[in-house]
Structures are given as structure tokens and as C-alpha cells.
Design brief:
Layout lengths: L2 E7 L13 H16 L3 E5 L1 E4 L4 E4 L7 H12 L9 E15 L1 E6 L13 E2 H10 L4 E9 L1 H4 L15 E6 L17 H10 L7 E3 H11 L8 E5 L4 E4 L1 H8 L1
Helix pairs in contact: 1-5, 5-6
């Protein structure tokens, strides 16, 4: 079974009304490592930089990500050319979210070059929804941890809604549409990703983590902040992470 993941953490923004961030790149790198170590995912990082000390690739702290780069990476994940379509595809995004409300309300994932003054609001969630509808990937996972997404991000736009078509899906968003999302006190991670990392750790969660158990774990681990993540699981079970012992048992 082929399993691909695109892990995005954008810290750097050019638009004056979008502050630069510190948590997204660290959030994304922590998620990437868990998926690689315990999920058997082939992980692509965005932005990706080379760590010369360890000769490894990590999520860049200051590197910019353009709308064109993000769109191309998501298309490669969910609708790649050729016949090498993954069985499972996972998108994790951490950064700013924007909401445009001019006659029609739309949500966007903000990229470094986002500038609403010139009509660039970032990646449209309606576009993402249409892409997922057309995707042949059977297991689709979308985790959106957008800074201030409670006020700005319309999660429903990223849910294709075509249930019962042989797809398994897991959607998680940081908060409801009218709530802010926070960075945790005493941690370098956001509130949602802190709970997500705990939920994905298989050694702490009975050796096997699925899309359903991770939602339960997030609900239990989320501290009492004035935000409530939104979850939507549909279809069958998606295995996310396993301990090495569990992997050996499955192989046997």
C-alpha cells in the first residue's frame, strides 16, 4: 500500500496584515516525523530545506511558499499524473487562514505571497474541494491547523460531501468558524497540533492509531481553550500510525 503525505508549515508572510509566525514550521516538522517513523508515509515537506548538520530534509523556518507552489504540490498529492496513484494521501497545513466575504463567502489557505489588495487571497478551499471530488485516491486525509481559523476558515468548503462513493476520509480543522485558534502556553506548537501529536503517538495509544481514535484522543487531550476543533470522518478505518511491534504483527 502506497501512502503519501504533504506537510505544509508556513511561517513567513509578505502582506503587512498577516504577521509572521513561529509555530507552523515546527508543527509541520513534528507531524512529518511521526508520519515517517510510525505511519510508513512518504512525506513531502513544504517549504523544504536541507539540514546540513544532519544531512536531512526539514520544514524551513523562514522559506516562503507561493500559491503556485502549494497548488502544484496538492495536485501532485491527490491527482498525480500517470498510474502511480497512492492508496492514502494526507495533507497537513499550518499557517494563516483567510475568509473573503464579498457577496459569496470563501475560505483560503494563505501563502507567503498572499495579498488581498491585489486579489491574491491564497488557495481557495472550494478549489480543494473540487480536487478531492475528482481525485482517485481512496483514502483522503485533510488536517487544517490555521492560525485564527475560527474567525476566518470555512471548514465546510473543504469537505466534498460525496459520501458513500468508496472513499474513506478524515477531516480535522482547528476550530469553529467564529473562534480563534491558539498557540499553547509553554509549548512551541499550536493547541490543535499539540493534541494531534499526542493522538498520533502509537506508543501512547494502544500501538495502533486510526482516523477514529485520533479524533477521540484530540477531544480528550485538548486543553480548555475557547476553541473547538471540527472533525468529520466518513467511510472505513484509515490506519495512521503503528508501533514497530504492531507493524511486525501486521506483516506476519
Amino acid at each position: 500500500m502506497s501512502r503519501d503525505a504533504l506537510v505544509v508549515g508556513i511561517n513567513t508572510y509578505n502582506f503587512e496584515r498577516l504577521s509572521n509566525l513561529t509555530a507552523p514550521a515546527q508543527d509541520a516538522e513534528a507531524v512529518a516525523k511521526l508520519l515517517e517513523d510510525y505511519g510508513e508515509f512518504n512525506v513531502k515537506r513544504l517549504p523544504a530545506v536541507k539540514d546540513k548538520q544532519n544531512n536531512t530534509i526539514r520544514v524551513g523556518q523562514k522559506t516562503q511558499v507561493t500559491l503556485t507552489q502549494l497548488e502544484a504540490a496538492i495536485v501532485q498529492l491527490f491527482k498525480p499524473e500517470g498510474r502511480n496513484i497512492p492508496d492514502t494521501a494526507l495533507l497537513y497545513f499550518s499557517g494563516h487562514g483567510l475568509r473573503k466575504n464579498q457577496g459569496i463567502q470563501e475560505g483560503f489557505l494563505a501563502t507567503s505571497d498572499t495579498n488581498p489588495n491585489v486579489g491574491n487571497w491564497g488557495l481557495r478551499l472550494k478549489w480543494l474541494r473540487e480536487l478531492l471530488q475528482e481525485s482517485e485516491v481512496r483514502q483522503q486525509i485533510i488536517w487544517l491547523d490555521c492560525c485564527y481559523s475560527g474567525e476566518l476558515l470555512n471548514f465546510a468548503e473543504a469537505d466534498p460531501g460525496d459520501r458513500g462513493k468508496g472513499r474513506d476520509r478524515c477531516f480535522i480543522a482547528a476550530s469553529r468558524e467564529f473562534e480563534p485558534a491558539f498557540v499553547g502556553i509553554g509549548t512551541n506548537h499550536s493547541v490543535l497540533t499539540t493534541a494531534l501529536l499526542q493522538g498520533l503517538e502509537p506508543r501512547e495509544n494502544q500501538q495502533q492509531v486510526t482516523n477514529y481514535t485520533v479524533v477521540d484522543a484530540i477531544s480528550q487531550n485538548l486543553p480548555k481553550f475557547p476553541q473547538r476543533p471540527i472533525f468529520a470522518n466518513s467511510g472505513g478505518i484509515i490506519h495512521l500510525t503503528l508501533t514497530q511491534e504492531a507493524i511486525k504483527e501486521v506483516a506476519n
